[in-house]
User: Fold this.
Amino acid sequence: MTARILAVCNQKGGVGKTTTTYHLARAGIRAGKKVLVVDLDPQGTLTSIAARDEVPEDSISIADVLSARGREPLAEVIVPGIWDGLDVAPTVGEGLGVVRDELVVAGAGREARLRDALSDAAQQYDLILIDCPPSLDQLTINGLVAAHGVVIVTQSKQASINGLVKLHETIETVRRHYRADLKIAGVLVNQHEDQTVSGQSWLEELRGAMTIIEPPIPKAVVLSDAAEASVGLDEFGSRVANRMAERFDEYLTVLEEAVR
Assistant:
């Protein structure tokens, strides 16, 4: 088996990128896949909700894999996830923020450190999801270079849409210099408010600019509640949650097909 690797991106914070990564991981588990999530966001939120046990701040982490001073093998930092079949490459403490600054001044090869680290792990998993930080820095570029496809998470709001131009420019730069076969696997519109004129208007604007995966993800508190409780939507115990779990199953199928 060779994993499909998807980088989940948006340089704007608050769009639900980490929550989306979490629910896509659960969809992979529901499909019987062996899944690895890589927490590339210095905030470490994905680690806190997806790791089976609390990861101590002095533990080795993905920062030690990417740092020129550490270069720990990825296999040494991976911890079990909350579901059987899920593993987590964690972020803890301030280490990843330090490594982000280190990468700014690093020399040749800095963009490919995560790709190199994942080369062996890709044989152990069916799906690898990289939760990129809310910025277009060297951490995000590492995520893009390592991936087969990009999952863009955005909202049907002006501020979110305006930021997509810069993200597309970054993706094109990665294609030109580091990974010519990088694909945009799909655009997920999150926290959509279908009952508002503004939401409907900006959704149409998005549809006119790019191909989005339909239907949009509605603004539903169950998505964040399930993630914060470290349970899958199908484990949450409501009809709304079960419907959303099935929708994420469909999203993952579309995303994986796009990078085959």
Q: What stands out?
A: The mean pLDDT is 92. The first strand starts at residue 4 and ends at 9.
